[in-house]
UniProtKB/TrEMBL annotation:
Pathway: Carbohydrate degradation; glycolysis; D-glyceraldehyde 3-phosphate from glycerone phosphate: step 1/1; Carbohydrate biosynthesis; gluconeogenesis; Carbohydrate metabolism; erythritol degradation. Homodimer. Substrate binds at N12, W13, K14, G175, S214, G235, G236. Gene3D superfamilies: Aldolase class I (3.20.20.70). Keywords: Cytoplasm, Gluconeogenesis, Glycolysis, Isomerase. CDD domains: TIM (cd00311). It catalyses: L-erythrulose 1-phosphate = D-erythrulose 4-phosphate; D-glyceraldehyde 3-phosphate = dihydroxyacetone phosphate. The gene is tpiA. This is Triosephosphate isomerase.
Amino acid sequence: MTPGIRPLIAGNWKMNGTSDSLGELQAIAAGFADASGNEADGLICVPATLLDRAAKAMAGSPVASGGQDCHAKESGAHTGDISAAMLKDCGASHVIVGHSERRADHGESDAVVAAKAKAAWQAGLVAVICIGETREERVSGKTLSVLSTQIAGSVPAEATAANTVVAYEPVWAIGTGLIPTLPDVEEAHAHIRAELKRLIGAEADGVRILYGGSMKPDNAGELLSINNVDGGLIGGASLKAKDFLAIANAVKGK
Ligand SMILES: O=C(CO)COP(=O)(O)O
């Protein structure tokens, strides 16, 4: 973690969840303050179809609701797409942009991700901008240069500590049960902080940098102890309140 930065424990439900899942959200909302000892903020990014109900289910709790993607435009002829203002209208405070699954499945470039981040800000949402290297990039020693390129391309220069969260998600660690070594996580997060400083100056000192990729109750404690790891972006282990709250519990006393 980083002294002076309040951690964010965020869930990404991806394409999971129907009305049957609202009970898990209620349990997350009800248990979060106790689990985290009031030492962290919470966020669950649900499918757009659940957003309105999720926001209502978690209203008044320390757990905010977010979307998982938004269109770069405010409105118009974009069948099936959802604007940042629509997410905001359903109760979102955050939106994930540039998740590796969207970069891969929908061919989103850094420029598209940057445009989406700006659209999020325009609507009054915090942009959770995701970056991370593939396995091939990791093994060929390109991780840091890939992160530099992604930051330069996906994080607009108007980013602030208030409007932006950066999530480092090594693509090869997502959903695989694998995580980088702790020194590798530390190196990546320090590099991200340094690159953000080059881009936005002292404002970078307050930006939350989350780790994502197979974060689970049994590894959250060690990951969250690392310098510049200011929380997590959790996929599979955010679907059950028990697991998500166990991860929130790991911020205590860090
Ligand atoms: O992609 C992720 C969060 O955005 C991480 O997913 P897992 O926690 O399931 O590996």
